[in-house]
Amino acid sequence: MSASAAQKVDPAHATLWARHYPGHDMIGTRTFGFWLYMLTDAMVYAALFATLGVLSHVVNLAGGPSPSAFINPVYAYGETITLFLSVLIYGYSMVALKNGNRGGVIGSMFVAMLLGVIYLVIAGIDIGNMFAHGVTPQVSGFLSIFFTVIIYHALHILVGVVWMLVMMVQIAREGFSANVVYRLINLRLFWHFQAVIWVFVFTFVYLQGMVA
């Protein structure tokens, strides 16, 4: 055995781990907390989609219209395009944040917010047309969960739009403070999450309903 291998190590003086843990920074801690919120929101969506799957059976139509009779694919495609464009534009605002460009962040976020408003307008017109033709939640169990899913998602989009408006005001007043930055990061997570959820809404609510 070599002398180096036989040499004993004194644990009291060996650097095996950090003796003074610095702790998490505020942005990391609050972002982790927001991830936990999104996990709970994902569980709510999972329950809604499971209920939709059960109530999509023909028995639960209760004599009411089937999805293929009232779903308009034009509105669904319009919502898809506007929401995905909004997520893309918001991504540009994060690039501007990395470069410290206040005007770029506000400008990109303003466009993303307008696209979110357009999404809400399209969704409102779609739901209004359904109600005008007697397609309401009171007709059947299926329509109850159908409107619950799309309105619940639309409410999230509304929250995101209002959040963007608030953040633009805060950026203009405070600049890129720690509080502003972590809120922008959480808003990015929230907005991307809505796009991911929309993929499921479009697939299981609209697309599956059109081909049923």
TrEMBL record:
<keyword id="KW-1133">Transmembrane helix</keyword>
<dbReference type="Pfam" id="PF00510">
    <property type="entry name" value="COX3"/>
</dbReference>
<feature type="domain" description="Heme-copper oxidase subunit III family profile">
    <location>
        <begin position="32"/>
        <end position="210"/>
    </location>
</feature>
<dbReference type="InterPro" id="IPR013833">
    <property type="entry name" value="Cyt_c_oxidase_su3_a-hlx"/>
</dbReference>
<dbReference type="GO" id="GO:0019646">
    <property type="term" value="P:aerobic electron transport chain"/>
</dbReference>
<dbReference type="InterPro" id="IPR000298">
    <property type="entry name" value="Cyt_c_oxidase-like_su3"/>
</dbReference>
<dbReference type="GO" id="GO:0004129">
    <property type="term" value="F:cytochrome-c oxidase activity"/>
</dbReference>
<protein>
    <submittedName>
        <fullName>Cytochrome O ubiquinol oxidase</fullName>
    </submittedName>
</protein>
<feature type="transmembrane region" description="Helical">
    <location>
        <begin position="145"/>
        <end position="169"/>
    </location>
</feature>
<feature type="transmembrane region" description="Helical">
    <location>
        <begin position="189"/>
        <end position="207"/>
    </location>
</feature>
<dbReference type="InterPro" id="IPR024791">
    <property type="entry name" value="Cyt_c/ubiquinol_Oxase_su3"/>
</dbReference>
<keyword id="KW-0812">Transmembrane</keyword>
<dbReference type="InterPro" id="IPR035973">
    <property type="entry name" value="Cyt_c_oxidase_su3-like_sf"/>
</dbReference>
<keyword id="KW-1003">Cell membrane</keyword>
<comment type="similarity">
    <text>Belongs to the cytochrome c oxidase subunit 3 family.</text>
</comment>
<feature type="transmembrane region" description="Helical">
    <location>
        <begin position="34"/>
        <end position="54"/>
    </location>
</feature>
<keyword id="KW-0472">Membrane</keyword>
<dbReference type="GO" id="GO:0005886">
    <property type="term" value="C:plasma membrane"/>
</dbReference>
<feature type="transmembrane region" description="Helical">
    <location>
        <begin position="74"/>
        <end position="92"/>
    </location>
</feature>
<feature type="transmembrane region" description="Helical">
    <location>
        <begin position="104"/>
        <end position="125"/>
    </location>
</feature>
